[in-house]
Amino acid sequence: MILVVDDDEMNLRMAEFILKQGSYEARKATSGEEGLVLAAQGGVDLILLDIEMPGMNGIETAEKLRTAEETKNIPIIFLTASPDEESMAAAERLGVLGCVKKPFLPPELLAKIKEVLA
């Protein structure tokens, strides 16, 4: 199961649609806090995590995921409209396995997921 964490409902719907096309099960969270709760419940194979969110952003969420025993080994892919050097440095530091630029294209997103889950 793939957990998609994004504060934008349209992005969540688009990601869910693309994941279903790739035969993946999706679970959605609209905030970093909600994403942490759902990830800790188990059964998550991969997290697609938006960087820019109000409240707890994606980098802060990834930091918390990496420090919790039950979520520290779940692969993460960042979703971002504008990847900047600071975000990419944080991604590398946190062991994030890639970044997909929004708006994401189905083949690009599915290819990155396949690469990470292979």
Search tags:
118 residues, five-stranded parallel sheet, Rossmann fold, alpha/beta, 5 helices, 45% helix
Description:
The protein is of the alpha/beta class and 118 residues long. The protein has a single domain (2-117), classed as Rossmann fold (3-Layer(aba) Sandwich). 45% of the residues lie in helices and 18% in strands. The chain has helices at 9-21, 32-40, 58-67, 85-93, 106-117; strands at residues 2-5, 26-29, 46-50, 76-80, 99-101. Strands 2-1-3-4-5 form a five-stranded parallel sheet, sandwiched between helices. Helix 2 runs parallel beside helix 3. The longest helix has 13 residues, at 9-21. The radius of gyration is 13 Å and the shape is globular. It starts with a strand and ends with a helix. The model has no long low-confidence stretch (mean pLDDT 94).
Summarize the structure.
By secondary structure, this protein is an alpha/beta fold. 45% of the residues lie in helices and 18% in strands. It has one domain (2-117): Rossmann fold, CATH 3.40.50.2300.
**First and last CA, distance:** 14 Å
Runs with pLDDT <50, length 5+? Answer: none
Mean pLDDT: 94
User: What fraction, in percent, of the residue positions are helical?
Assistant: 40-55%
Pairing-aware structural class of the strands and helices? alpha/beta
SSE pattern: EHEHEHEHEH
CATH class membership: Alpha Beta
CATH architecture: 3-Layer(aba) Sandwich
Classify the fold: give the CATH topology: Rossmann fold
State the shape. Answer: globular
Widest sheet, order of strands:
2-1-3-4-5
Largest sheet: 5 strands, parallel
The number of helical segments is 5
Number of domains: 1
For CATH, the homologous superfamily is named as Response regulator
